[in-house]
Input
Amino acid sequence: MNTSTSSHVVTRFAPSPNGLLHAGHALSAFTAFELAQRHGGRFLLRIEDIDTARARPEFVEAIYQDLAWLGLTWEQPVLVQSQHFQEYFAAAERLIAQGLLYPCFATRSEIEAAADPANLDPDGAPIYPGLWKSAPADAIAARMVAGENPALRLDMAAALSAVRAKLSGAPLTFTERDEHGQSTVVVASPERWGDAVIVRKEVPASYHLAVVVDDARQGVTHVTRGQDLLAATDLQRLLHVLLDLPEPVYSHHRLIRWADGRKLSKSSGDMGLRSLRNEGAKAEDLRQAIGVG
Output
């Protein structure tokens, strides 16, 4: 694959190998690749497979095949997240040292039973009702001795206080760049996520933690992704500041939807790239269909 030495603009495409890519993924990949190309920069591929229960090697191989069919090239080596759990937990330990993470043994059903059904996070999940936030040390120790692994949740109130101190009272913001290259400074609202999970019970990471660690260590300067991840930027910017990580520029592109408003889905195989290839479609046909170039 192609390797560039330019360090001005670094973009990435970071799919999860828990299903086949569809046309929406193609839009994200094209957007990141062409931004790097326009600026003589670098385009990276990252395999976000921390969900080890759902990730499959055949889906990783399909990602490579689909991107090659689209005519995209990327730098080697490809970063595979499941090979870097130690680095993610090292970042979590920095948050633990700041007193910002606490263990939680609550199950999804316990959370749903205790939560306010009208109080939801941006993904539509109940805001965590603090079941273990003030749990006594002996209760936590007993569960650990019994062999249970807790999730580690972010104490949002404490995190916001720490960020205000780091920013000397200035608001937490990020820069959003539109399709015309115009930039807007957006005030982030991470509190709407509540005490989010930063380290999962099953693996020593979460999407939010892994993505900020990887973007920083790979030198990603411009994060391009779909509008469905816009709200995630609030929480990720909070983690940037808490972990002293650099801030990228964000671009959240339009989503490709069906006529009834539904966005494309891996689980339903919507406009799958493999199916399009097997039907004899050309990458240029797809570009025209999704309005790229």
Notes: The chain has two domains: 1-83+256-293, 84-101+147-255. Confidence is low (pLDDT under 50) at residues 1-6.
